[in-house]
Every structure is written in C-alpha cells, then in structure tokens.
C-alpha cells in the first residue's frame, strides 16, 4: 500500500466528517491535486481541448480535399504564410495538418483523454479504493501529459511548421530537415513532446495496474471485476510493455537527427549531396514504431469496449453475455496485439516469409474481436433496452467496430494489402474501427458517468440529437472513403487532381467534406450540453441508471476518499440484471446473497454460508 | 449545384427528425407513460430511428455500390491481379454478408427489445455452445482466406521467372527514374556517391555492365512477359504503386527491393476498355515523401511484345554514356575502348582516332 493510501486511511480513522475534512486551497484542489477524480477531470478537459483542435485541423484539410477550387483566403488571419498567395493551402502545411491531426487524435485524445479520464475515474470507484495506489505519481502523470501538450501545441506555431511526416514519422523523411520543412524544429518538438507523453503514460499505467492488483475492496475478486476494469487493466499492461519501445525508437531518431548516427539512414542523396550515413535501416524504425503502434490501436479501443460492455449491460437490463469469454477475448487481443505489428509493413520489402507469418497472426486476432461483437449483440437479445445517450453511443460503437473491423480482414491478408496499403481504404478502416469506435466509447462514458463526475445530469434530448447527427455524419464521412480507396487513391495526398486515374472523385469528396463539417458542428451540441450541465444540470439521483457497480454507492459529490465511512464489501459479480425472482431488475454488487434468497442460483446459495456480513446493512 | 442539393437535403432530414422527435415526445407526455421514471421519454422513437437508419443505410450502401461499381473498380491489367481480384471479391462477399447480418441483428434487436413496461429482460449470462460456434466458424472461414491468400502471396513475392525483363526504378523527390540494361541484358552497379545532377541514378561507370545502360523518361513494359522491377529510393522512402496492376512495393534508401509481375493489357487495349483515348497507366508514389508527394507521377506504357522489341532496339542506342560522353572520364583506362563500343560512341570517336593516327604517321 502506498504512502498516500495509508495516509488516507489514517485520515478516516481520525476524522469522521471525512468530506468536510478536505478544505484544501484552490491550487491543491483543482491544479496540483492528487485526487483521482479531479485528475480524471483534468485529463477529460485537456482531451476535449485537443479533440477540438484535432477535429478542427481535419476540417481545414477536408476543405482542401473537398473543394480544391475554393479560396481559403479567409483562413489567412489564422494560418498566415501557410495560405499561398493564390489563396490555397500550402502543400507542405497540408502534410503538417494531417500529421498533427493523427498524432493529436491517437495519442492526446484517445489515449490520454480516454484512458487518462476513465481509468483514473473508474478504477478506484469501481474496485472500492480510496484513491490510486500513488496519488503523487498520478498527479505527475497528468502534468507530464500537460507538458507534452504544451510542447506539441507550441510546435503548431513554428515558422517551419509542426512535424509533417505523417503520424508515424518514418525516417528518412522525419530525420532530414532537407526533405520536408516539418522535419526541422517541428520534428524535434514532436519527439520531445512524445517523450514526455510516454513518461506520462507509464506513470499512469503503473498506477492503474498496481491499484487494480492491490487495492480491491473485500470480495472484489478478479472474477467479479466489471469489464471496464478488466479492459483498463489489460490496456495499462499493453502500454507499459509497448511505450518504452516507442521511446527507444524516438531516441534513436533523435541521435540520427542531431548526433550524426546512422541507425535509420543509409545511402542517401538529397538536396544535391550524398550524406555520409551508411549501414542504417529505415525499416528498423518501422519495426520499432509498429511494435508500439499496433498495441496502441488496442490501447485506444479496449477501454472503449470496456466502457461499452458496462453501459450495454446496464441499459439492456441484462447481464453481459459471456462475461468469461469477454475477459478471455480482452486477454487474447492483448496478447496477440504484440505479434501482429508487421502487417503494417507488407510492402516494405521485408522478407515475404515474415509477411506470411504476420498474415496468419493478424487474421487470428480477428477471432476474439468477432467474439466481442457477437456477445454485444446477444446481450441486446431479449433485453429491455433503455436508450440513454450513453446506450445510443454504445450501440453506435458496436456498429462502427463491426464495419471497420471487417475491412481489417482485407488489410491483414498480405496479398490483398498489396493493392490497398496506404490508400484511403486504410483511412476508412482505421477511422471506423479505431477512431470513431473509441471516440464513441469516450462519449458514451462521459454521458454515463457524468452524474458521478459532476453530481448533475446532462440533458437527455440534446444527447440524443448529438448522437444521431454524429452517427449518421461519421458514416457519411468514412464509408465513401472505402470506394476511393478500392480505386487506389493514396492517403496523405494534397490533391486528387494531379493523377488522371483519381480525378473523378470530386463529388464524393465534396460530400465527405460537407458531412465532416456537419459532424464537427454537431460536437458543439455536446460541448454546450457538457459545460452547461456541469453548472446548471439537474442534480443527479444516487443511481440514475440503476446500475450494479459500486461507484453508485458513493455520495453525490464524493470527497477525497470516495466513501464516507467504511468502503462497502462486494458479494457478487456486476451483472445481476433482471435476475429471475429478484424484486428489482438490478442487484448491486454490494448486496450479499444472504439478502436475496429469492433470486439466488444453486451455487450462489452455497456462497451465502461464507459471506462475512459484518458492517453490511440490509437495505430494502 | 450538387453541393447545394446535398446541403438542403441534410437540413431537411434534420428538420424532419427533429419534428418527429417533438411529436413523439409530446405523445409520450400526453399518454403519461411516466411510471418508470428512469426511462426517458421518446424511447420508442429511438427504436424506430434505429430501424430507419438500418434500412436507409443498407439501401444506400447497395445502391451506391452497384451503381458506381465501374467507377471504383479499376479494370485489371496484370496476370496475378486476376487471382488477387478474385480473392478480394470473395472476401468482399463474406464480409458484406457478415456486415449486413450483424447490423440487422444489432439494430433489429435494439428496436425489438426496446423498453416495455412490465417486461422483464431474459437473464441469459452465457451459452457455451453458442460461443463455441461463433468462435469456430469465423476461425474456419479466416483460415480458409489465409490459405488462399498465402498461396498467392508466395507466388507473387517468390523469385521472378528466368526470362523476366529486368528494369530498375528509382524514386526521388519528386519523380521517378528508370534504367534498362541495354544490349548486354545486365544492369551495371550503382553507387549513391556517384549521383549528381546528370547521373541521377548514380551509375557506377567502373562497372562494365553499366556502359550500355539507358534511361528513358517513362516506364515501358512488354505485354505478356514477366517484368522484374528492381526498386530503390534515393532520398526518402517512396512507393512504386499502380492500382491497375494491383502492384506495390516501397522504394527504400539503402535497401533495394523488387517486385515482379506480368502486364496483361496494353495501353492501347486499355484505352478501348476504358473508352478513353487519353488513358495512360500512371506510376503513383504511395508513401508520404514530402511537399509534392501528391504530384509524384510517372508514365507507364505497356506495348505489345513486337512493339516493345522495336522500341527497345531503337531506344537502347541512346545509352547514358553516349548522351553524356563527359562521363567517359570516370571509366577506368583499360575499359575505355570497350565502353565506347558498348555505349555506341565508337563512330564519332573512330573518326577522331583515324585522323589522329593519320597525323601521327606523317
Ligand atoms: C472530424 C472527424 C475526422 C475527420 C473528418 C478525419 C479525416 C481524416 C482525413 C481526411 C485524414 C487524412 C488521410 C490522409 O490523407 O492520409 C485523416 C488522417 C488520420 N486521422 Fe482522421 N478524421 C477524423 C477523426 C479522427 C479520429 C477520431 C481519429 C482517431 C483515431 C483520427 C485519426 C487519424 C489518423 C491516425 C490519421 C492518419 C494521419 C496520418 O496519415 O499521418 N481521425 N483523418
Ligand atoms: Cu496493426
Ligand atoms: Cu514519393
């Protein structure tokens, strides 16, 4: 047990009025806080900030793609020299926009914003802990993220622009400032920012893992953990194992850029001169990058799937179908995600035999993913579904996860990837399965746990309008990209018109861009709802969704330490919804079997004898 | 115009949805269906929207996919592509089937099992048999897809046939360079330190085999004969890509790569197939490589074998050395004579030699 935790326990022992006890100053309450709930909110707000920036960037380059004729003169006040004298977006800046968009979305929004928010918020609340194992490390984790954000944000305003080699920043392009402007100071800042980011992820991850292993309340065995926690747990392990590899890839790149080494560089002639570097391999970088990069896509999607599992079970008023299979597939996906990385590299000239191995492993990972989708659908079957906004977003997530996941079967098959690699088919694939799905997971989580975060309710109607506009909009944005991709249109292209083969997709691109703008606009409904409800929302009831998990046993505005008095004990799994014989259609985890003889199954009846009921009140 | 219509359509749809929403909410309120307080009003309407979305989405998907089939499905122009295309569409059939079925279940169940008063959900935590079924069936289907794919993969990435035409392709910011082996049928070696503004591919003239190499400005390929592309990148990574050939391989500095395939449709034939007299195969750069990545285009022409042969015969006269005789100075002394012959410079040089010989004999 960590120092803070002991400290907290002592606090409790000394002080009965626990929630009044923390009359902290503004700084220690809102800024350098060690309370996991406040840190979660810090991650959330920062994530929202980045989502607006990242989404805004994509709108700028969608304008270029959808309306190549349009004058972007009106953006000059904001973009300055990046608008050419003819009123067009600068081609090099286009690449910088794409790169920043990808980096921001993947790392800052869907890794820090998603895991940072919900792992921090839910782990202690759902396992019954007063706080994270180390509140101090947790605070550091946020502030490293903040520093990383500041560096990345400043890089947007550099004269040579931010990094521009794509979010994967492959060398030599990213190593040589002669090759592209973004590889000058922008790339240096990208690397510094990512190093800070990795430090933040590791600090967070170690904390999540330790907390889940060590601080579960009485009775909260691993086989009773909500699937959210299972997902956060495996996600944290993935991050812990893979981010250091990205750090080493970045370090070697820093050496190549600044200290004349040749890890990734060999036999290069650029800008009129032959460089001295020989013996390096650009492919080495790709192996290192994707050793993180592939687990990263699961780091992004697993928490969203965990959140969805919880929300779907709650709102279908049914146990999640195949709880054990769900855990099994999270573990399977987690393990397999480390052995599929080279499916991003089928056409790099890597040994074709390796290509075969990675094809096999990649298609194997489709199986646990399929299981998850089938299990969600079966959970809906014969349910009694309440369409809260969170539930709608969860159903949307499942739809995206299927649509985007299926195209992975094409891309994972090396022989088909020859023609699809790096085309818009890939853009469509990962935006649906990773981007939109986890984005929806994040929104679902916000709608669902908002009452716990802020003690108030978000507006239900606005939430639904937000859902439908986003859902239809996202399909309109990303579905058409499949067609352009099948026709071979390459990604990271500033314009569709320089090749005759691709110049015929003008209408489709215009449609996509319009849909993108509307989808982006719809997010402001959410922003309004979010910020308005923080201050003016209806006060939340104790358990607004009639959910089983134990975060709903805390007070409306939980203080530092979460529960007033002792932490409740746990007696059952989290999914006893609509159990035959039960009085209500839900039985919280804190209710002992001894109190529910009417609904106990046979083996549960056995368990009643072993239950330790000291300190448990009978609520009726 | 089209844009305007789309915008109007979207606005109208939103308006319709919004009005319908208001109406159902009001109906709910009037009916006072509020006994179950945690179920917000308009729950049924959400279920209806699910079905509308499902039907509308699937209809739009099939309509567009069929109508535009010829636009997005580029005609095939190489031999291996016939088989990969086949696998592509088999995979498509399977995935579309799964896609439609699962979406129908997802939205169908959402609608069918939307909240009803006094209905109790079915407590159904697991069913091992069912779970086994949907583990094993996808596993079998995927295994079959893997096997079909890998058989083809090993052929495509395997060694090129012995009779393959060997051509070198080099990507650099932001264009392509091509080199053919010339009369001796062998490419000379190259060295990035030898590159300069003229010798863009860094032909190493100390290697005799390079003396007759020639570098046309476009990639000309014979129809029906295997072609082996020897690929390299000069500055950053590029990617040699053409969607008609279903062909792609990265061009990596410091690590030569290769790709072989057999063009099966000549440019002339493709002009007829596409009904476009202007048609040309384009060599596309498909790996982000800098500012003008999007304009890094090469021209590919596929000729019938006999046309190709005569093109080759004609063009091989324009060897690199002949066009840039200054580089003779890089040729080692003992190879100079042979180099001139190989490069086809002997005629001019012979005359000079004759005159100089004559003058010295005087
Ligand atoms: C407003 C919604 C969004 C729109 C309109 C959008 C659109 C695009 C487009 C057009 C590209 C450029 C493709 C290319 O040229 O290669 C792109 C790239 C990318 N997007 Fe998005 N996107 C959106 C949201 C997201 C989200 C939520 C994610 C989170 C995963 C994401 C991740 C990426 C990544 C990783 C790239 C690749 C960047 C690169 O090529 O380096 N996007 N997006
Ligand atoms: Cu991957
Ligand atoms: Cu290129």
Automatic annotation (TrEMBL), chain A:
Belongs to the heme-copper respiratory oxidase family. Residues 26-595 form the Cytochrome oxidase subunit I profile domain. This is Cytochrome c oxidase subunit 1. It is found in: Membrane. One of its GO terms (cellular component) is membrane. The keyword Iron applies. GO terms for molecular function: cytochrome-c oxidase activity; heme binding. It comes from Ekhidna lutea. Its main location: membrane. It is a multi-pass membrane protein.
TrEMBL record, chain B:
GO terms for biological process: ATP synthesis coupled electron transport. Its cofactor is Cu cation. Keywords: Copper, Electron transport, Membrane, Metal-binding, Respiratory chain, Translocase, Transmembrane, Transmembrane helix, Transport. Its EC number is 7.1.1.9. Binds a copper A center. It catalyses: 4 Fe(II)-[cytochrome c] + O2 + 8 H(+)(in) = 4 Fe(III)-[cytochrome c] + 2 H2O + 4 H(+)(out). The keyword Transport applies. The chain crosses the membrane at residues 6-24, 45-66, 86-111, 132-150. It is an enzyme of class 7 (translocase). InterPro entries: CcO_II (IPR045187), CcO_II-like_C (IPR002429), Cupredoxin (IPR008972), Cyt_c_oxidase_su2_TM_dom (IPR011759), Cyt_c_oxidase_su2_TM_sf (IPR036257). It is a multi-pass membrane protein. GO terms for cellular component: plasma membrane. GO terms for molecular function: copper ion binding; cytochrome-c oxidase activity. Residues 60-160 form the Cytochrome oxidase subunit II transmembrane region profile domain. Pfam families: COX2, COX2_TM. It is found in: Cell membrane; Membrane. It comes from the Bacteria. Residues 162-314 form the Cytochrome oxidase subunit II copper A binding domain. PANTHER family: CYTOCHROME C OXIDASE SUBUNIT 2, CYTOCHROME C OXIDASE, SUBUNIT II. Belongs to the cytochrome c oxidase subunit 2 family. Subunits I and II form the functional core of the enzyme complex. Electrons originating in cytochrome c are transferred via heme a and Cu(A) to the binuclear center formed by heme a3 and Cu(B). This is Cytochrome c oxidase subunit 2.
């Amino acid at each position: 047990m960590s120092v803070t935790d002991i400290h907290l326990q002592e606090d409790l022992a000394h002080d009965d009025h626990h929630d009044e006890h923390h009359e902290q100053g503004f700084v220690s309450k809102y800024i350098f806080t060690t309370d996991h709930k406040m840190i979660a909110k810090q991650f959330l707000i920062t994530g929202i900030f980045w989502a607006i920036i990242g989404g805004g960037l994509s709108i700028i380059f969608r304008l270029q793609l959808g309306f190549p004729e349009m004058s972007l003169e009106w953006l000059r006040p904001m973009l300055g020299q990046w608008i050419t004298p003819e009123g067009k977006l600068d081609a090099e800046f286009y690449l910088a926009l794409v790169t920043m968009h990808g980096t921001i979305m993947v790392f800052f929004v869907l890794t820090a914003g998603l895991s940072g928010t919900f792992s921090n918020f839910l782990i202690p609340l759902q396992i019954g802990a007063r706080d994270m194992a180390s509140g101090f490390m947790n605070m550091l984790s946020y502030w490293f993220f903040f520093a990383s954000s500041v560096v990345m944000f400043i890089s947007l305003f550099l004269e040579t622009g931010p990094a521009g080699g794509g979010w994967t920043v492959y060398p030599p392009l990213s190593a040589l400032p002669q090759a592209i402007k973004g590889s000058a100071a922008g790339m240096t800042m990208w690397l510094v920012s990512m190093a800070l980011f990795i430090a933040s992820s590791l600090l967070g991850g170690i904390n999540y893992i330790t907390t889940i292993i060590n601080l579960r309340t009485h009775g909260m065995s691993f086989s009773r953990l909500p699937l959210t926690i299972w997902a956060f747990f495996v996600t944290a392990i993935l991050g812990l194992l893979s981010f250091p590899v990205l750090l080493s890839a970045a370090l070697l790149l820093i050496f190549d850029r600044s200290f004349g080494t040749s890890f990734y560089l060999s036999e290069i002639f650029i800008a009129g001169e032959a460089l001295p570097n020989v013996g390096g391999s650009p492919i080495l970088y790709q192996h290192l990058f994707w050793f993180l990069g592939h687990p990263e896509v699961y780091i992004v999607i697993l928490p969203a799937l965990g959140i969805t599992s919880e929300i779907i079970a709650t709102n279908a008023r049914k146990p999640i179908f195949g709880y054990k299979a769900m855990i099994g597939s999270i573990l399977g996906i987690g393990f397999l995600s480390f052995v599929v990385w080279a499916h991003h590299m089928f056409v790099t000239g890597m040994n074709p035999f390796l290509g075969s191995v990675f094809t096999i492993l990649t298609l194997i990972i489709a199986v646990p993913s399929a299981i998850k989708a089938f299990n969600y659908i079966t959970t809906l079957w014969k349910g009694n579904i309440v369409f809260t906004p969170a539930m709608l977003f969860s159903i949307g997530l499942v739809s995206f996860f299927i649509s985007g996941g299926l195209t992975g079967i094409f891309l994972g098959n090396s022989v088909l990837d020859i023609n699809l690699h790096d085309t818009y088919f890939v853009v469509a694939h990962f935006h649906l399965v990773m981007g939109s799905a986890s984005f929806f997971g994040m929104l679902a989580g916000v709608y669902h746990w908002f009452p716990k975060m802020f003690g108030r309710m978000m507006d239900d109607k606005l939430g639904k309008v937000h859902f439908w506009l986003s859902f239809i909009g996202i399909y309109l944005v990303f579905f058409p990209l499949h067609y352009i991709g099948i026709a071979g249109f390459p990604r990271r292209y500033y314009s569709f018109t320089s090749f005759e083969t691709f110049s015929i997709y003008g209408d489709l691109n215009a449609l996509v861009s319009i849909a993108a703008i509307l989808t982006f606009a719809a997010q402001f409904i959410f922003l309004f709802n979010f910020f308005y409800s923080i201050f003016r929302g209806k006060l939340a009831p104790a358990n607004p969704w009639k959910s089983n998990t134990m975060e709903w046993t805390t007070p409306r505005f939980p203080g530092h330490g979460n529960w007033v008095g002792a932490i409740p004990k746990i007696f059952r799994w989290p999914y006893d919804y609509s159990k035959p014989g039960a009085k209500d259609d839900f039985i919280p985890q804190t209710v002992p079997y001894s109190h529910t003889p009417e609904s106990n199954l046979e083996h549960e009846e056995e368990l009643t004898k072993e239950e330790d009921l000291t300190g448990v009140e009978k609520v009726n | 115009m089209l844009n305007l219509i789309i915008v109007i359509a979207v606005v109208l749809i939103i308006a319709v949805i919004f009005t319908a929403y208001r109406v159902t909410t009001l109906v709910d309120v009037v009916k006072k269906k509020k006994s179950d307080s945690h179920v917000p009003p308009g729950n049924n309407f959400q279920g209806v929207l699910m079905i509308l979305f499902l039907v509308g989405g699937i209809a739009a998907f099939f309509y567009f996919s069929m109508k535009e089939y010829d636009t997005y499905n580029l005609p095939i122009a190489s031999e291996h592509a016939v088989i990969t295309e086949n696998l592509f569409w088999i995979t498509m059939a399977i995935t579309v089937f799964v896609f439609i079925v699962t979406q129908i279940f997802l939205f169908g169940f959402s609608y069918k099992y939307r909240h009803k008063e006094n209905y109790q959900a079915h407590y159904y935590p697991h069913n091992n048999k069912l779970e086994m079924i949907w583990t094993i069936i996808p596993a079998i289907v995927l295994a079959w897809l893997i096997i079909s794919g890998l058989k083809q993969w090993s052929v495509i990435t395997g060694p090129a046939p012995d009779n393959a035409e060997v051509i070198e392709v080099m990507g650099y910011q932001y264009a392509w360079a091509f080199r053919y082996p010339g009369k001796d049928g062998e490419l000379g070696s190259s060295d990035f330190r030898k590159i300069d503004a003229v010798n863009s591919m860094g032909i190493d003239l100390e290697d005799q085999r390079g003396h007759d190499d020639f570098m046309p400005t476009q990639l000309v390929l014979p129809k029906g004969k295997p072609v082996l592309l020897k690929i390299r990148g000069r500055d950053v990574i590029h990617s040699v890509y053409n969607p008609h050939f279903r062909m792609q391989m990265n061009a990596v500095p410091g690590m030569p790569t290769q790709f072989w395939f057999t063009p099966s449709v000549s440019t002339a034939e493709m002009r007829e197939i596409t009904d476009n007299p202007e048609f040309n195969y384009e060599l596309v750069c498909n790996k982000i490589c800098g500012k003008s990545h999007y304009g890094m285009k090469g021209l590919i022409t596929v000729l019938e074998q006999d046309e190709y042969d005569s093109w080759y015969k004609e063009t091989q006269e324009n060897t690199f050395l002949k066009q840039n005789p200054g580089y003779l100075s890089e040729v080692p002394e003992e190879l100079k004579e042979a180099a001139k012959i190989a490069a086809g410079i002997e005629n001019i040089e012979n005359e000079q030699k004759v005159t100089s010989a004559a003058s010295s004999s005087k």
